[in-house]
Here is the input.
Amino acid sequence: MLASPQFFPPAIQRRIPPGFSAQLQRKMQEALRKKRELAAMQPLPAQELVQQDVLLKQNIHLHKKLLLPELSLPDMHDDLLAEIQLLLNTYPRLSSHPVFLGYYLPATVPSSFSVKNNRLVLVGLKHLIQKLHWLEDRPQRGKAEMESQSGAEALFLLAEKLSHEKMVMLGEMHYIPGIQNAVEELVLEIQRLQPGRRIVLFTEFVDLPEHMAPGHATTETYYRQVTQEPLEKLGDEDLYLRVGYAKSLFATLVRNGVDVYPLEDRTLCHMIEREESPLAAEKNSPRAIMLRNQTWARVMERKMADIRRTDPDALFIVYAGMGHTSWVVPYSIPKFFASEQPVVVELSPLVPARMNTLSVVWGDNDPFFTVRKETSLHYWTGSDARLLAQKTGFDYAFVLAGRKLRWKADGL
Here is the structure.
């Protein structure tokens, strides 16, 4: 069963109202009771010459159609919660794990938005559990295919590897200056290794210019109707007027010739906030993340096509939170650009991030998740390196420690 809120990470606790666990359990139990009653009814008459398994599916469908011709929104909501709980029961330790609580948390307040959110959660969880079983069945659970490098050379090795890619996702834990400093060093080192190559960085930490929502746009259609205005890179003036997060990082990149483009669309965020249930905080529900990601992908796709007309070899980097870049997140940014074969880097302080399937399968007591005394890089090798990345969430895990975590004034 789901863990009570006091076991949740602080960032999740702030999103969960009092009584969350008990409320969710009651809803799921009631929905399960309804499903059992439905299952206990006599099946409809069988039709001849139809295979038994097909008949069973037809009977279930007809029962639902005849008995619930207009399923109410609360019933749909409860039914989805029951399905989610049944799925979690097949992998119990997942229900209290950060990867579920951070990326797959269902909404418990009935609404149109929550139904759509929980459908996404249900489908995503099925794929996530498949990934977990795949990793469990892997020889040594994939441990033999991970390489590591510690010390000062870790960042330079990562930069060397990323410099040969077409598209890179940098997923961070927010509000850690040491991570921002590492991103700055990493991008500048790639630039040094690839002199003359255009480097383009898209980021969630700068907002697109304000604009009106397209006429008749909904949260579902917004990404197709997003503003057609040209996307402009940040200039010196923007660093003072539009950048509030990681100012030092963006100022250094802009002044060193890196093209920095905004991604966050406040118009869409306001639309999402109006539509979300009271449980969801701002824009962090799985559905909200998906809606933002598909809009960002549309913005990026257009700009990338424009840039490639003059710079076909440009390197594109996305700098955002892990919830947007991880391979295990439903509709994450790299999945929109699969043809580019993007690589995902997870940046975390002291310990490798737990927001992936390794933490679930290997366990938090595994030596991999011990506190680091020096900065380290961990990455997959061998013929299945990309497959391992997509099953676990990352291609590279970069862990900052020692001097790399020292704070740097976030000013200009």
